[in-house]
Amino acid sequence: MLLQIVHIILTVLWWFIIAQAVMSWLIAFNVINTHNDFVNQLWTVLDRITEPLYRPFRRIMPDFGGLDLTPMLVLIIIIILDGPVLNYLGRLAYANGMA
To answer: Fewer CB atoms inside 10 Å of the end CB: C or N, the chain?
Structure first.
């Protein structure tokens, strides 16, 4: 049960990161305008959700100028946690009779 909750949380975070990345591209290429109240509120919500995830990695990532690879790094970590790590923990719990 706990592993399913962790899986759901990681999936939701994955989608928030994807939405924030796509929205940042749309803003950068002036497809959408942050002066629109809805766009501004959505951007603020996504930024408040994703920024705490990015902050520790931005401290150690080298500066690539205008290119921010932090979302990609966090997505890779989420994929690793959601795939091999959760599968291993699930097998471990099943082997110990906890499932």
So the answer is: N
Instruction: Provide the b/e sequence for 42-77 (b: ≥16 CB within 10 Å).
Output: bbeebeeebeebbeeeeeeeeeeeeeeebbebbbee
Residue 99 has pLDDT above 60, yes or no: no
Burial 18-35 (b: 16+ CB within 10 A, else e): eebbebbeeeeeeeeeee
Closest CA to 20 of 74, 62, 65: 74
Task: Specify the pTM.
Answer: 0.85
What's the pLDDT tens digit per position in 55-98?
999 999 988 887 889 999 999 999 999 888 888 888 888 888 77
CA distance 98 to 96: 6
- Domain-wise residue ranges, the chain: 1-96
